[in-house]
Amino acid sequence: MNQNVTSKVYPWQQTMWETLTTRFPNIGHGLLFYGKQGCGKHAFAKHFLAWVLCLNKQPQGACGECSS
What we know:
Helices cover 34% and strands 0% of the residues. The chain has 68 residues and is an all-alpha fold. The chain has a single domain (1-68), classed as P-loop containing nucleotide triphosphate hydrolases (Rossmann fold), CATH 3.40.50. The longest helix is centred in the C-terminal third of the chain and has 13 residues, at 41-53.
């Protein structure tokens, strides 16, 4: 896992994380992450993408061992 990806989801993002990971892979082919500057949307998107590409998904994120 890329070290630049945050290893956790911020508390205010937890509901969205649970929604996306529960519905995956039955979500749309494109996602738009939006919010105020500095709220963590870029880090969240990178964290989610690493999880999507992960070969051994964990509830809290990517496994950290594969190349995702």
